[in-house]
């Protein structure tokens, strides 16, 4: 797919998602526990691209750190042989969709070259100490024309900076008392400790992918879903955080929006 085609996907799909959501979209939001907003809009765009660009046949998929939840389109899941690699035995035990689950480390576990049509790593890279090793394994395992979907936090955003420079106990407190997830921090439950290797930065990730023969076909930074969650559950706290973000955006001369705490990128192997 050409760069212009990718941009058309990126601009068209969120518009559709902002209209009255379909029953399938509502079910997807509930299953993934994603609030309405930019994160879900971008995921719909990702689904449209994968649905259009993946081969119309049985697929081989590697979910790196996939755990118990897939963010792939339901149709792709149904017609794929999915292999999940994760270091968390509790997460793997909960997995009910993978054809094969492997207790292993995505930094060191290796598959034969050109094994997969799609590799996905969703909100995992920020927890990995050696992202270069993990990405090299992903890219080597892709077939020519295969795609990699990566979702991760933006370390240069407001939420990224807070996550990077605050202790893990604070992340657990936030999940429990702001997000309302009272199981947070228990075995097999988010949040997990973060590392924020330099390659998690989107610009560094793009450059590294290009040196390994991959091209970007979709890229979008979007408002972290933590913002709409706070607005719904803790409106006073959300108003304060939004005010801080607005001041920071002003100081940065609107060159970026510090609320853009996460990103999706789809890469294709030449």
In short:
This protein is α/β, with parallel strands linked by helices and 270 residues long.
What features would you describe in this structure?
43% of the residues lie in helices and 20% in strands. The protein is α/β, with parallel strands linked by helices and 270 residues long. It has one domain (3-269): Rossmann fold. A seven-stranded mixed β-sheet has the order 3-2-1-4-5-7-6, with helices on both faces. It is globular. The chain starts with a helix and ends with a strand. The model is unreliable at 1-18 (pLDDT under 50).
Features:
single chain, 270 residues, alpha/beta, Rossmann fold, seven-stranded mixed sheet, 11 helices, 7 strands, globular, disordered N terminus
Write the layout of secondary structure elements.
Elements: H1 3-18, H2 23-32, H3 38-53, E1 59-64, H4 74-78, E2 80-86, H5 89-94, E3 100-103, E4 116-122, H6 131-141, E5 142-153, H7 158-165, H8 168-177, H9 202-211, E6 214-222, H10 226-233, H11 235-251, E7 262-269
Parallel strand pairs: 1-2, 1-4, 2-3, 4-5
Antiparallel strand pairs: 5-7, 6-7
Helix pairs in contact: 1-3, 10-11
In N-to-C order, the SSE pattern is: HHHEHEHEEHEHHHEHHE
- What is the rounded Rg? 18 Å
What number of domains? 1
Distance N to C terminus: 11 Å
Please outline the major beta sheet.
7 strands, mixed
CATH homologous superfamily heading: Vaccinia Virus protein VP39
Q: Report mean pLDDT, rounded to a whole number.
A: 89
**Proportion of helical residues:** 40-55%
